[in-house]
Design the sequence.
C-alpha cells in the first residue's frame, strides 16, 4: 500500500490524520498497550510486533493494526523503522 491509499483508507475508517513516526535502529519496546486503536503503514525499514507467543515482521508497504489495549512488544530493524500511524479513540 502507498501513503495516499493509506490516508484515504484510514480517513474513511474514522482514524485521525496519520503522523510520521521514526524509531531507532535495533531498538526494542517491551510489552505495553495503547489506550487507542492504531493502524500504521511502514514507509521505510522494518518492525517486528509480538502478540502473546507469536510475532510478525512488517516491511515497507505493509500495514499493521492494533486494537485498543492490545498487549504487544516491538522490535525495530537494523535500519530502524519509519511509519505513518493513525489512531482511533473509542467514544
Sequence:
Amino acid at each position: 500500500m502507498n501513503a495516499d491509499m493509506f490516508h484515504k483508507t484510514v480517513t474513511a475508517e474514522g482514524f485521525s490524520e496519520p503522523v510520521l513516526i521514526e524509531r531507532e535502529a535495533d531498538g526494542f519496546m517491551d510489552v505495553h498497550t495503547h489506550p487507542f486503536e492504531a493502524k500504521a503503514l511502514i514507509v521505510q525499514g522494518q518492525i517486528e510486533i509480538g502478540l502473546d507467543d507469536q510475532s510478525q515482521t512488517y516491511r515497507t508497504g505493509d500495514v499493521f493494526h492494533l486494537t485498543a489495549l492490545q498487549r504487544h512488544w516491538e522490535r525495530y530493524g537494523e535500519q530502524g523503522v519509519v511509519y505513518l500511524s493513525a489512531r482511533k479513540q473509542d467514544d
Notes: The mean pLDDT is 96. Residues 3-12 form the longest helix (10 residues). The CA atoms of residues 15 and 88 lie 5 Å apart. Helices lie at 3-12.
